[in-house]
Amino acid sequence: MAMTNNKTHCFTCNTDKITYLCNGCFKKFCLLDLTRHRQILNEELHLIINDYNQFKERFDDQKPTSHDLSLIDQINQWETDSIDKIKQKAQECRNIIIDYSQIFLNNTEKKFNDLYEQLKQFHNESEFNEINLNYLRHELIKIREESNNTPKTSIWLDSQPFINEISVILLEN
């Protein structure tokens, strides 16, 4: 019985030999050429690994660019300016409340002092009647009510932004 021919054509050396199929490129190689083919594939893999390592090293060494740092400086300045504006506005509002409250207290105190002077005068002179007493009583009640009904103050929040809003716009290539 004759031996069957299991030789096929090698892609590289173009001779009939026992060949092995490469599952990547689907070509048939003899054992020697298959070994060389695998060596070439290994060299290509090492080139890719080296390229990756060089890129990774450059990537890891990247620092923020001067443009990035400039943007961060602008953000920091916006923050500082915004905080200063808020603090200034808050102090202005505090001053208004304190000033208005002080004016109210001063006016009330002046009315108390005026009433006191009238009381003292009536007491010292001993010249008063029911009309004077009703007047003094009425004035005291009026001052008391005014002092108990302090002016109603409140805070109004403007719907318009007081501080310019800031955003970062990312442009992708």
Task: Set down the secondary structure blueprint.
Blueprint: E1 8-9, E2 16-17, E3 19-21, E4 28-30, H1 31-60, H2 66-125, H3 130-148
Antiparallel strand pairs: 1-2, 3-4
Helix pairs in contact: 2-3
Describe this structure in a few short sentences:
The protein has 173 residues and is mainly alpha-helical. The chain has helices at residues 31-60, 66-125, 130-148; strands at 8-9, 16-17, 19-21, 28-30.
How would you characterize the overall build of this protein?
The protein contains three helices and four strands; from the N terminus they run ββββααα. It is mainly α and 173 residues long. It has helices spanning 31-60, 66-125, 130-148, and strands spanning 8-9, 16-17, 19-21, 28-30. The two termini are 71 Å apart. It has two domains: 8-59, no CATH class; 75-148, no CATH class. Helix 2 runs antiparallel to helix 3 (130-148).
Would you tell me the overall average pLDDT? 90
Radius of gyration: 48 Å
Q: How far apart are the termini?
A: 71 Å
Describe the biggest sheet? Answer: 2 strands, antiparallel
Name the overall outline: rod-shaped
Residue stretches low in confidence (pLDDT < 50, at least 5 long) are: none
